[in-house]
Amino acid sequence: MLKFYNSLTRREEVVSPFDKKVIRMYSCGPTVYYYPHIGNFRAYLFMDNIRRVLKYNGFKIDGVMNITDVGHMTSDADEGEDKMLVASQREHKSPWEVAKFYTDIFMKDAKALNIDLPEHIVPATSVIKEMIVFVEGLLKKGFAYETSKGIYFDIEKFPEYGALSGMDIREKLAGARIDVDEEKHSPYDFVLWVKAPKEHIMQWESPWGMGYPGWHIECSVIGDKYLGQHIDIHTGGVDHKPVHHENEIAQSNCFYGHQVVKMWMHLEFLQVDGGKMSKSLGNIYTLADLEKRGYSAEDFRFFYFLAHYSKQQNFTFDALDMAKNTLKSIKNLVKEHQKGEKTLDTSEFEQEFLDSINDNLNMPKAIACVQRMLKQERSKDVYQTFLKFNQVLGIKLEDEDVPQEIAALAQKRWQAKKDKNFALADELRMKIDSLGFVVKDSKDGYEIIKK
Ligand code: AMP
Ligand code: ZN
Can you say whether the dihedral through the CA atoms of 203, 190, 80, 279 is positive or negative? Predict the structure, then answer.
């Protein structure tokens, strides 16, 4: 039984999709104003981990991730400047050029990390019309109000505000300082739509004049447009809990009049040398920085598996070295098993691996199980079981030019031959051939060659 920890109910729950067939999953995506760092990628490896484990359990997924290319202020609340604007001034580029440049880097890095990306990746600026309709809806239903600066969500109208992060908003309000903006009903009311000053670079027509969206509205609207009124799983970093996700819950639940997201999953932060990653400490690393020091994206992918997502993970180069070496030895052992002669029943390992990943993604335990299995006498059964586990691990195997899909087909064909199902074996050989690869059999195994 697959169980994940739900941050909203604060307990582990069995995963059961609303419509029984497909898991609808939303992941908060990157703000494309600067190079994504390895902390950000811990969040997307977490998303990848959930997706692959769901698939391993036979679920289909309809997944969405937003790309924030407007409206995210330098503070997660509404203060400061738009991050895209700051980047556009820094780099003397239009915000569109900035967004394209960093989105491309994000996608390239995500590919190098073998991240299983969601089915829909949606820039915030592609749903401006829908955002306006959503904000109009909230106004009409009485959950929002207009000031000279924009449209604000009225948190007094949503008594459950604060439930996710466990804050008592009434207590907070009682002790709150008077907001600098006297037009706001409460200091915690947040902006849905900002009325733009003339010189603001990104602005769109709206019923309230020219303007641009607040940051939080994009996730409610993109979730609504692509997944509808019921979302099974929503992911993000813990930093989003107290502001961004509280606001998203308030908007969506009020718009629909019911709870939209069933399960919230939050990832704890990656620390560096036991502390926060920050520009002033000079300890923000990108994948390119790691590569310069001789570590591949895959080394970092494997590093992710060595800590539980609900705990902070401490990044040091010693720890990355350990991950790199462990990964190397795993790959070598897998190669040895590929040529192994012994027959072995791996069902106990299969069960343990499944129990570990299904226990709220206990990857350290799953990896320990993989390592124990690889210590067995060399056997093709181990190799085959590893390939199965690798649907979750996503490790690139020896023939770097051979995609996992081809490797899996070749393995299936090998099994079909062993089972004397030659018709299936032939069919699979032709399929592999049509995809540009040839399998060559030898006495004790096979080789995959790119045509
Ligand atoms: P941003 O691009 O700033 O919107 O952040 C993208 C994602 O990275 C969010 O889900 C954040 O929670 C996450 N994130 C940022 N810093 C870290 C970190 N040090 N460790 C883990 N996740 C992080
Ligand atoms: Zn979001």
Answer: negative
